[in-house]
User: Which sequence fits this backbone?
């Protein structure tokens, strides 16, 4: 089953995402955001970048793109849908994931490696990880501070919807700051109730080869490859 | 008839506004005694409507579409016939 990588005006991780998917043995195609149909695709990725220049708010204008009706349909039908960085922002703006991503507490666009713990391994995107495994992945964002009201946060926690959480670098001094953006509950990635729509701020597609400094992102794509083989 | 609308979109109370904090720090440095500085957005637009209630309804629908209810509130700050603005 082929995977759609949606390209909004201003997306810039679309090719990296396709590359990472293809490395995992998946057939991936770039799909322009004005596309009215995603018929025939078994999964969708909303890549990182700056859709619509991040005007108004990150992801706020992309949610009105014609393709989003189809993204919503696939999400509702249970197909795997994933948003990375700007894609996560689009998913929250579109209401496909709860909460919102606000300006980093320090107001800096932050581009560095972070550590995150895998909290769920029963998803189409995470089955190749071990529960509690700590991944080293890059982040690159200015608006990554996960926010939701207390009721929503409690629900996410109780229902196990927090999939990735920022943690200290293993072996680092315990006082070292590790949450790069002020995200509540150290949230780096969440999934919807049904478990098929995942959003995360760090970039797994930028960590799929040794030459990139880390291969910890590969699991997302190899997991999906297995899940789609099972679906086909 | 053409109307001119001014829409305000602001972060909800209680949500940390680091932009507001940065501005507050600068204002304090300039010697102003201010607190609780918040930074929001103003949208101005012109629209065609048959009546003022219709213009108001449209402007509010636009504000609703553009604001994110998770962390923002919106208000129609002003609505006037365009000729009064020009």
Assistant:
């Amino acid at each position: 089953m082929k995977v759609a990588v949606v390209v909004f005006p201003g997306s810039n991780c679309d090719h990296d995402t396709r590359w990472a998917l293809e490395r995992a043995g998946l057939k991936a195609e770039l799909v322009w955001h004005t596309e009215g149909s995603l018929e025939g695709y078994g999964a969708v990725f909303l890549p990182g970048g700056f859709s619509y220049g991040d005007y108004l708010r990150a992801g706020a204008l992309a949610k009105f793109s014609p393709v989003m009706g189809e993204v919503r349909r696939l999400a509702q039908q249970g197909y795997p849908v994933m948003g990375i960085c700007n894609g996560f922002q689009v998913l929250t703006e579109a209401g496909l994931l709860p909460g919102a991503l606000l300006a980093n507490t320090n107001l800096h666009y932050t581009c560095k490696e972070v550590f995150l713990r895998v909290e769920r391994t029963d998803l189409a995107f995470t089955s190749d990880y071990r529960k509690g495994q700590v991944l080293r992945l890059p982040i690159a964002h200015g608006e990554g501070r996960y926010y939701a009201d207390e009721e929503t946060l409690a629900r996410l926690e109780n229902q196990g919807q927090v999939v990735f959480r920022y943690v200290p670098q293993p072996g680092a001094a315990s006082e070292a700051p590790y949450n790069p953006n002020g995200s509540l509950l150290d949230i780096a990635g969440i999934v919807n109730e049904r478990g098929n729509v995942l959003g995360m701020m760090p970039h797994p597609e930028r960590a799929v080869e040794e030459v990139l400094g880390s291969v910890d992102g590969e699991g997302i794509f190899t997991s999906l490859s297995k899940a789609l083989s099972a679906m086909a | 008839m053409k109307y001119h609308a001014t829409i305000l979109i602001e972060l909800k109370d209680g949500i940390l506004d680091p932009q507001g904090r940065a501005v507050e720090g600068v204002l304090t440095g300039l010697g102003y005694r201010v607190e609780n500085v918040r930074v929001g957005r103003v949208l101005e637009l012109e629209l065609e409507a048959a009546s003022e209630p219709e213009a108001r309804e449209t402007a509010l629908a636009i504000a609703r579409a553009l604001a994110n209810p998770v962390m923002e509130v919106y208000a129609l700050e002003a609505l006037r016939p365009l000729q009064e603005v020009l």
Notes: Chain B touches chain A at residues 15-16, 18-19, 22, 41, 65-66, 68, 70-71 (CB under 8 Å).
